[in-house]
Amino acid sequence: MGKKDSTFDKPLAQNKKASHDYFIEETFEAGMVLTGTEIKSLRGGRANMGDAFATIRNGEIFLHNMHISPFEQGNRHNPSDPTRARKLLMHKQQINKLYGLSRQEGYTIVPLKVYTRNGYAKCLIGLGRGKKNYDKRESAAKKDAQREIQRALKEKQKVSY
């Protein structure tokens, strides 16, 4: 048994609504400030990013409304609030760039997924522009068409054998 060569693990939590509600124009990777029991719970898959959003205050970026369930075998230092604001770690230049871009009309900072890289919890955040209802219908139609194409190709491969 050799050492695992991959630097990425599978996503621990994903915001599936983000691609439905926003056009993601640019992505950034940020470290997360977590307690020991939070990271254990996160690795156990007990996190939800459904209503999560990010804000920038005083030159620091924070992740709000990400629910990490308390770790069952945790000690008394377990955070009592599972949806507390968690600080994200980014370079000052990246934060300033993100702040400038997010101040434009219609743009927001959207957390996309949480994963581990080399043992550290990372959050992929994106600069998103809100979709209108007709954009959502168009995206759904494209996705359905792509699914039909894949289904037809798969059927054709079955017949050719």
Automatic annotation (TrEMBL):
Keywords: Cytoplasm, RNA-binding. GO terms for cellular component: cytosol. CDD domains: SmpB. One of its GO terms (biological process) is trans-translation. Residues 135-161 are annotated as: Disordered. The keyword RNA-binding applies. It comes from the Bacteria. InterPro entries: SmpB, SsrA-bd_prot, SsrA-bd_prot_CS. One of its GO terms (molecular function) is RNA binding. The keyword RNA-binding applies. PANTHER family: SSRA-BINDING PROTEIN, TMRNA-BINDING COMPONENT OF TRANS-TRANSLATION TAGGING COMPLEX. Required for rescue of stalled ribosomes mediated by trans-translation. Binds to transfer-messenger RNA (tmRNA), required for stable association of tmRNA with ribosomes. tmRNA and SmpB together mimic tRNA shape, replacing the anticodon stem-loop with SmpB. tmRNA is encoded by the ssrA gene; the 2 termini fold to resemble tRNA(Ala) and it encodes a 'tag peptide', a short internal open reading frame. During trans-translation Ala-aminoacylated tmRNA acts like a tRNA, entering the A-site of stalled ribosomes, displacing the stalled mRNA. NCBIfam families: PRK05422.1, smpB. This is SsrA-binding protein. It comes from Cohnella thailandensis.
